[in-house]
Amino acid sequence: MSRLFNTTGIWIIMIILTIFTYAMGKLGYSGTAPVLLLLLTVLIKSTFIIRDFMGLRGVSLLWRSIMYGWLWIVVISIAVTYLMSTH
Question: How far apart are CA 21 and CA 64, in angstroms?
Answer without folding.
Answer: 27
